[in-house]
Amino acid sequence: MSTTARLLAPLRSAALLRPLAPAMAATSASSRLLHTTSSQAHVDTSSTDGNQPQGHLPGKASSVFLTSLNDSFFDKVTPNVLSGSNNAQGGIPTFRLLDGTGKLLPGVTDAMLDITKQEAVRMYETMMLLPVMDVVLYNAQRQGRISFYMTSHGEEAAVIGSAAGLDHSDEVFTQYREMGVLVWRGMHLDDMMNQVFGNEGDMGKARQAPIHFGNPSLHFHNVSSPLATQLPQAAGAGFALKRTKGRENNVVICYCGEGAASEGDFHAGLNIAATTKAPVIFFVRNNGFAISTPSTEQFCGDGIASRGPGYGMLTIRVDGNDALAVRAAVKEAKAKCLAESRPVLIEAMTYRVGHHSTSDDSSAYRSRDAVENWKKMDNPLHRMRSFLSERGWWNDEMEEEIKKTARKRVIDAMNRAEKKKRPSVTSMFEDIYSGELPQNLKEQRAELARLVKKYGKSEVWAKELNKHAEEGRDLEKY
Ligand SMILES: Cc1ncc(C[n+]2csc(CCOP(=O)(O)OP(=O)(O)O)c2C)c(N)n1
Ligand SMILES: *[C@@H]1O[C@H](CO)[C@@H](O)[C@H](O)[C@H]1NC(C)=O
Ligand SMILES: *[C@@H]1O[C@H](CO)[C@@H](O)[C@H](O)[C@H]1NC(C)=O
Ligand SMILES: [Mg+2]
């Protein structure tokens, strides 16, 4: 049994019954455990397995009954695995393979890592490419060259580790901070830059804000800005996968932030997936913040993982800054999704090192020191690098080389994208309806044509029109 399997197995049985067990032991007399056969609760002395008398709750075969009101309340889900003395403070444990400095934890074997040198190196190289893209594009926004951007700083292991735990044909639904999945799946940097710059090379024809990617051939579903949109969609996609011949070995992964988990659609998505037994991995990046709201003010439970049992869902909390643990957890989650035909909830504990987006300055609500300290204390890139170096799979020359080539690749791709024109002006009227253009859009197009005819030669208009393919001449025929 792998570590993940060992950790998941007890979690599976950690239904709501478990936290009651210690309390049950405390109520010395078993006569205080009730068996209900009518509205009048009464003492059950005939139960065959004394400690677990059967209750009669709709849809639930057994539930332990307690008579002590105080003992009946609980606010934590305590998985069997660490309910003993080694988890004195209680709470849901966190799965990890590497320690904070990147050393293998005692007892972690190669079989548990289950990774080749080639894949581990590729993971690290991809993790290294992300911050390079982030720095270049963040600055490009600051220089007014693109309108918006969001970085992945601090979450490289959570995103790349999870991507590496899946097959390229698994369906991906993301929130917005997970473009690393596309990098892992091999989306060309030119295609990514074309999207961010919204030029005529953009597969989405510049109709979405930067980083709102969509890539059908990489099974990457279009990003939507309204939080949690993707969760019910993912549940539906999971159900569809089950019903599609030839997709028996595929799952859906659906990412969201811990902040988005406060949306109603989070509940809807998880509950639909659980009840339809859809093969969906809900991967929650708990990065400590929803813009300026810290996790501590976002919810009162034990993180997001504590909600899994509420949906009857297999759940695991993983160290999101340990790329190898994230990969192992996702691989095992996929295996369980398929073997048991049910969704899995993963909570990845990480930290948003960057500002929320280019529209945010996080120094307004957290100290710069806190961020700097975090980068030093728990750095997913350093941990992965140190793991690789320890095995002789990485060295300083490789590090220098990758830093140099990554930057050049990214800047070259950006420059190519920036030189391209925007889509033609009339393209904005296309594709919304498959048949003939409706009258109202025809009128709008004609009005635009009239205005461009009238003002198009003025300096301001001419400059803008010049940025588009066909420079507005495509309007002349309307
Ligand atoms: C329905 C909805 N409400 C509010 C927003 C504004 N908004 C955008 S991102 C965000 C924070 C989300 O935080 P989290 O889910 O933790 O993701 P993170 O940014 O930390 O990756 C908010 C409130 C939105 N996009 N949609
Ligand atoms: C229930 O808990 C409260 C608060 O801890 C305590 O004051 C009270 O005595 C308890 N009641 C019983 C019946 O144990
Ligand atoms: C999703 O993205 C792809 C690629 O950019 C695009 O072709 C498609 O039109 C988008 N779909 C929707 C519904 O926006
Ligand atoms: Mg967050």
Description:
The protein has 3 domains: 20-73, no CATH class; 110-418, Rossmann fold (3-Layer(aba) Sandwich), CATH 3.40.50; 425-475, no CATH class. 40% of the residues lie in helices and 8% in strands. The chain has helices at residues 3-13, 20-26, 69-72, 110-113, 117-142, 156-164, 180-184, 189-197, 230-242, 264-275, 295-298, 323-340, 368-377, 380-390, 396-419, 439-455, 459-465, and strands at 34-36, 41-43, 171-173, 252-257, 280-286, 289-290, 293-294, 314-319, 344-349. A 5-stranded parallel beta sheet has the order 3-4-5-9-8, with helices on both faces. Helix 10 links the parallel strand 4 and strand 5 (280-286). It is globular and about 80 Å long. 39% of the residues are buried. The structure holds thiamine diphosphate, 2-acetamido-2-deoxy-beta-D-glucopyranose (2 copies) and magnesium ion. Residues 203-204, 214, 222 line the site of one 2-acetamido-2-deoxy-beta-D-glucopyranose (NAG). Its EC number is 1.2.4.4. Belongs to the BCKDHA family.
